[in-house]
Amino acid sequence: MTFPRPRPSVPGEAFDPLSVLSLDELRRRTSVKWRAYPEDVLPLWVAELDVPLAEPVARALTEAVALGDTGYPAGTGYAEALAAFAAARWGWRPAVEHTALVPDVMLGITEVLKLVTGPGDAVVVNPPVYPPFHAFVRHLGRRIVEAPLGADLRLDHDVLEEAFVRATEGGRPAAYLLCSPHNPTGTVHTRAELERVAESAEAHGVRVVADEIHAPLVLPGAEHVPYLSVRGAERGFALLSASKAWNLAGLKAALAVAGPEAAGDLARMPEEVGHGASHLGAIAHTAALRYGGEWLDALLVGLDRNRLLLGELVDRRLPGVRHRAPQGTYLAWLDCRGLGLGDDPAAVFLERGRVALGSGPDFGTGGAGHARLNLGTSPEVLTEAVRRMAGAL
Ligand SMILES: Cc1ncc(COP(=O)(O)O)c(C=O)c1O
């Protein structure tokens, strides 16, 4: 099947998925980004993108609906599409036979953690980090051991090693939930960093679970290194999904991949876990990975432009804010401690500026005084958001 090239919204201009939908159209959406706050609030908080569906995805879904193809998922099409995408983009081909369909990334993480840890065992995380890492792990009855990122917002190997020691005290099993790329800082881990992680995890008997949901969203200047492609990662797991890059969170499906020496563990995952993924989800994610590359490239151009624009806007209008452009993801981590707005600057921007950002303290240690801004929007909305933030000061 062939699909038309993405069309520019203005004839003659390059296609920009971030500039297609008007604010009025976006406000008609019923997803949480647009419904959590009153209409006068500009929402740049939760990780949803202000983009239309990629055409190949819309086409695949439309065909499925026309056929009434709305039963249960079957086969390995999603895993095969991921394998081809990962081989083409990252030079790593995950083994289809070591890949399992899961409902979404967070539930996939939960199920993998159940395979390698028991109640009360420790899971190491790197705050500030995506808040559900704390919440889901606690809900599962596992103990959190924090290994905060360094001041440069990168992994601190000494801190990580010390956390591995604490996590495995008394010879207990433990896991490490790695966020790669890292949400909220947009840090993209290098091969050398990941090899050090693998070496240290192996030395302490810690099982690594890499959340690579943001992997397709690595921006120019950095390169995604799949955790399972590094030396020493054979006993690790990775969770991948098309949901962030193609904005498919409402179409539930994700994949858990096991390293060669973790395949036996993954095989113990109960069959019913896969029943939580939706067939339409698997269809949409498969189409995104198979045919959505051109659309993704257009998105990455827009995100690269937006991260530069945000840097300029912050320098000009929010001089007290320190900001490092993300290497990947569409999230920007703003250090607002210089503004004197207290632990939760997002609360002030919301109340006085009517702009919704992610609250830093929700991200755990290191989050106080920070806010997370979602760059996955048009340059106009981004500019207006910063204007409102400056007006709140
Ligand atoms: C790092 C990370 N993992 C997982 C998720 C959620 O993924 P899912 O909806 O597939 O559970 C997000 C959503 O933003 C995320 O940023």
Sketch the major β-sheet.
7 strands, mixed
Average pLDDT figure: 96
Distance between the termini: 53 Å
Report the sheet-strand fraction. 5-15%
Q: Judging from the principal axes of the Cα atoms, what is the shape?
A: globular
Ligands and ions found:
pyridoxal-5'-phosphate
Radius of gyration over all CA atoms, rounded: 21 Å
Structural class comes to: alpha/beta
Which consecutive residue ranges, at least 5 long each, have pLDDT under 50?
Answer: 1-5
Write the CATH fold name of the largest domain. Answer: Aspartate Aminotransferase, domain 2
> Any idea of the CATH class of the largest domain?
Alpha Beta
Domain count: the total is 2
What is the total tally of β strands? 13
So how many helices? 13
* CATH architecture title of the largest domain: 3-Layer(aba) Sandwich
Describe the structure.
This protein has 393 residues and is an alpha/beta fold. The chain folds into two domains: 17-53 and 293-391, Alpha-Beta Complex (Aspartate Aminotransferase, domain 1); 66-291, 3-Layer(aba) Sandwich (Aspartate Aminotransferase, domain 2). The chain has 13 helices and 13 strands. A seven-stranded mixed sheet has the order 2-8-7-6-5-3-4, with helices on both faces. It has a four-stranded antiparallel sheet with strand order 9-10-13-12, with helices on one face. Strand 3, helix 6 (132-139) and strand 4 (143-146) form a beta-alpha-beta unit. The longest helix has 25 residues, at 293-317. It is globular and about 55 Å long. 50% of the residues are buried. Bound molecules: pyridoxal-5'-phosphate (PLP).
